[in-house]
Amino acid sequence: MGEVVRELARSSRSVIYITHKISEAMDIAGRIAIMRGGRIAGIIEERGADFDTIVRLMFGDKPINDSQTRGFVEHSEVDPGGSVLEIRDLWVPGNHGGYSVRGVSLSIRAGEILGIAGIAGNGQRELFEVLSGLRKPARGSIILDGEDITNKDQDIGLGGVYP
User: Fold this and answer.
1) Are 117 and 109 in contact (CB under 8 A)?
2) What confidence tens digit (pLDDT) does each residue in 31-54 have?
3) What is the pLDDT of residues 139-156, one digit of tens each?
4) Contact 87, 133 (CB under 8 A)
5) What does the alpha-carbon distance between residue 5 and residue 111 come to, in Å, rounded to a whole number?
6) Are the C-beta atoms of residues 87 and 140 closer than 8 Å to each other?
7) Which of the pair, 99 or 162, is modelled with greater confidence?
8) What are the residues whose beta carbons fall under 8 Å from the beta carbon of 76, sequence distance 6 or more?
9) How does residue 63 score in pLDDT terms, banded at 50, 70 and 90?
10) Distance between CA 123 and CA 130 in Å, rounded?
11) Is 36 exposed, middle or buried (0-12, 13-18, 19+ CB in 10 A)?
12) Is residue 72's pLDDT more than 50?
């Protein structure tokens, strides 16, 4: 699976890989976003990813400093260019009331692989369902290649946009 995901990135595709398995995220992702309580608890670049830091973010110990969690890792094989996917202040209702995703914002450029990790029940499934067109967000926006696809009536989910 990892080689397929890396091949997609080398061909200038952006990849969002959602898992609760830390080792998978560390093996595949160039950037790892950790979700806790429906929010992004931290974003770690490939060079700063270590198991203990990810676990601390997943379980709620103090966040790591901002210099470790921001920026873009340049890869010589791919010219990243501008964002191909932007999620802005996304809020997604949960199945049992309240919100499962609260105010999530992120941007992905061509060739990037973003892994999202978190303990089951912290909004990863709902985020995936919104991005794949299976669920509608309560508010926020999803911009794909400059086009707002939030709440499109047709089943345009990201899974159908890029093969």
Assistant:
1) no
2) 888 888 777 888 888 767 788 888
3) 999 999 899 988 876 444
4) no
5) 10
6) yes
7) 99
8) none
9) very low
10) 11
11) middle
12) no
Q: How far is CA 137 from CA 131, 147, 162, in A?
A: 9, 16, 21
CA end-to-end distance (rounded Å), the chain? 16
Give me the pLDDT at residue 6, please.
75
Q: Letter for the amino acid at 13? A: R
Tell me the two tokens of residue 120.
Answer: 């089951």
Distance CA 19, CA 40 (A): 14
Please choose, from the candidates 8, 26, 3, 4, the residue with its C-alpha nearest in 3D space to the C-alpha of residue 112. Answer: 8
Domains of the chain: 2-152 (3.40.50)
Q: How far is the C-alpha of 145 from the C-alpha of 85, rounded, in Å?
A: 6
By residue count, the chain amounts to 163
Calpha distance 122→51 (Å, rounded)? 19
Q: 104-135 pLDDT, tens per residue? A: 998 888 878 788 877 778 888 899 889 888 88
Residue pointed to by tokens 């999620």? 87
User: Does an H or E element contain 28, and which?
Assistant: helix 22-28
Using the structure block, give the residue that is written with the tokens 């509608």.
136
Rounded to two decimals, the pTM is: 0.53
